[in-house]
Every structure is written in structure tokens, then in C-alpha cells.
Amino acid sequence: MKTIHIYSNGRLEEKQSGIVQEFPLVLHVNGREIATLIASPHDLRFLVAGFLRNQGFVERAEDFHMLAVCDDFGIANVRIRSELPERLKPVLTSGCGTGVTFTLESGQRVAKRELGASVSPDAVFRLMEELARRADNYRSHGGIHSAAVGDGEGNLLLFAEDIGRHNTLDRIAGEALFKSIDLAGKILVTSGRVSTEMAAKCARLGIALVASRTSATDMAVRMCDEAGIVLIGYVRGGKFTVYAHHERLVMEKTVGAGLPRPGRGNRAPTISQRIPGVTGVILAGGQSSRMGSNKALLPYKGGRFIESIHRQLAEIFDEVLLVTNNPEQYDFLPCRKVTDLYPGMGALAGIHAGLHHAANTAAFMVACDMPYLNSDLIRHLATQADPGGVLIPESPAGLEPLHAVYGKGCLAAIETTLLSGERRIVSFFGRTNVNRVNAEQVALFDPDFNTFSNINTPVDYYRLRDGERDEHAAEFTADRIAG
Predict the structure, then answer these.
(1) pLDDT by residue (tens digit) across 388-406?
(2) 96 a catalytic residue
(3) Which of 96, 224, 335, 368 is catalytic?
(4) Taking the model in full, what pTM does it have?
């Protein structure tokens, strides 16, 4: 752990944090030094074996006579059955830290093999969501790439993470080799860009489909097209872009398990089951001085603004509470209304009241003026709730405390803060356990971060209503064309 300082709201706060590690590993094969691999320092034998496999120097575990890694000196000594080519021509790739390969053209040589049956989008979304769950290092301090391999149903088989995106695939190839897992016909998902060396390695391994939450290069597209690999990019927000072999996607299921539907987040959720152990809490807010009237009661979607939010939370949670100091204004809502125990102390007092009255050990808190809530992001947060602390998402603007999950273990810290006269929500974070879901993870569900948008002024509201009318007009036009 290292002492770092985080700048927030005009102050520097000291914190202990882990730092991404970089480890140079000098690779000797059959007595020859052939490369230095810059990688994360864990499971280096998988990395070495997969690197050699993806270069075409080994094909089976039996091809290794010796594989020894010395962590102290950063040296890997390997002896393999076959002889290395007399001359090796290294190619610097576009990987993080600049990767190296000796067989860039190999993807085309192994093309045209049978790469398995068609795949449904649902399997892609399912595996990409599992990748997001497993990427613990990426969430904690950033800078780590991750990749996973799954079967045709999206069930995860292997997972790897490393500072280099190309290293993640080498690690998977090496682990699969030692565990006798056949990668032919499998799905690969990755957090990083799909470039030529990634496509070539996938072709050599027989991967049937590659999906990334970012982009693909033109050479990678060409290579996947020739090798018969389905290539997908920008897997975000229930959408993706298919660059090669779209015909091999089965379109009966178009919505991913656990990832949002296309469009704004207040559509029907993709998962119908309610999440146990977490209460949904709507914070009715203050005076709405900039709006000039109560935002929660503004007309929206054929009802009142707050009704839309309540309906959405009621589909996710068994219990929904409304925190308001004017409960009589919300008699139309079919949920329990509770009032502040510390009146006049702002949103922090509302969070305290909701958490205090909640029947469950954790509560998802949301402001009453957020029209684009993303149900699948809410579910993702709620399933990771910490009864003893806070789980808070980040956006490019910073922490989002009015769209976060709070555990009852926070109550004492919140009360101490309120009694001290401090009203800022983040002011009690130093007294409790706080886990962050960084912007990269949030973007898997909502790439535009619309879920955190709120309505503060009449201009905001009219823009929202104009967007609603445009959306209805587009849907009406689509229905006429389909009819």
C-alpha cells in the first residue's frame, strides 16, 4: 500500500491505496533470450506458456520439457520440444506498453477452420457482465485490462487480468493449455481494443467470437473476416457493433442478462426478479427553489415525475420508501413515507432517515429528480451492497452519492456527522467503509452516464419533455412503417 492524496472539493485527503504493479520478465527459451514481457506479477507461468503457444512455438502441455519462473530475478527459463527459428523477427504491436509478436501473420494461416455454432447476443452480454464483476483490480485502482473466455451460453470458463490487454489473452491460452480446456468455438470478451495481434491469437486458438467494450482496428476486422471469427465492439448499454460475420448471431434474444436495454434507462428492466435484502429509497428533496415548484410533482409520462421513479424501483425492490417532510403531498404513492430524524440537515439527513426506517440491511438511495435511471445499473449496484458501508458509483463528474447503496452499518457514522453540524454527504465517508464503482464499470451499463442526470430548472424540464415527445414520435413512425 502507498500513501496517496485525493483532491476533492478543494481539499487534499490522504488515503492508503494499492498501485498497479509492472513486472519485467526476461524470457529464455532453449538457452536463447527472445523477449522481455512487461506484465502484472501474478501467475507468470500461464503468461509464459500462453505467449509461446500464441507464437506457434508449442501446441500442447507435453511440448514443454521445463518451465521455471524466478520471481526474484525476473527470469523465465523454458525448454521446449521444438527448435526455435534461427532468425526471429520481432514486431512491436499496438498493445499497452508495446507488445511483441513474432508471428503476426499467423491468424490468416489458421483461418477457415470450423469455429462452432452461432452465438446469441444474450451470451455476449452475460459474459461481458461477468467480466465486469471479476475485474476487481480495475475497480480498485484502474489501469488493469481483463479478458474472459466462456462457452456458447455465456458461462465463464477462464478469466485473466494484466496491465497489457494482449497479455490477458496469453494468460488465458496458457491456463487453458495446462488445464486441458479446448478454446475452439469459445467466446472471448475483453476490456481492451481488439487489434491485429489479438485477432491473430484468437484465430490461432480457434475462438469463435471476440467482443470488446471498446473498438477494433481495420486490420483486426480484416483478419477476423478471413478467419471466420465474429468480431464485436462497443458492448455497452445493451448495444454493440458487429464488424465481422453478423450472420452467425442468433437474433431470438436481443437483450443481455444483466445489461441494459437500448435507449434510456427507464424502460422495462431486463431481469424481472426483485433483489432481496435491499430497500429502494426515494429522497423527495428540498424546496426546488431553482425550479419554482416541487419537481417531484411535475407531469411526466402520463403521471407525476416521482411516480415514474417509484414504478421503476418497485420492479427492482420488495420495499420502497419515500423520505419526505411533507408526506401528505404524496398520498397517491403506494409506499411507506418517512420523515427526517434530523430536520433541516439536507440530503444527508434524508439518507439517514431512509436507512434508519428500511426493513433491510442496505438501501439504494436515489434523488427524486433523475429521469433516466438505468434499472440494470441499479441492480448491479444492489447485488454488491455492503451492509457495513457504502457502495458508490463514479461518473466523469466525480462521486454520485445520490445514486448509491448504503448499509445500516453507516448509521452511527452518519449520526456523528450530523450531530457535528456537517451536512455534506461525503463528510462521513472517512468514518466508514467506502467502495467505489469507477466510471469504466458504470459505462458498461450506461456509456453516456445519463442515469446521473437530474432536473433542476424549468429549462431542464422542458428539454426532458421535448425529448419525451421526440421519442414518442419516433416510436409512432416506427410502428407505422412496421405496419
Answers:
(1) 999 999 999 999 999 999 9
(2) yes
(3) 96
(4) 0.48
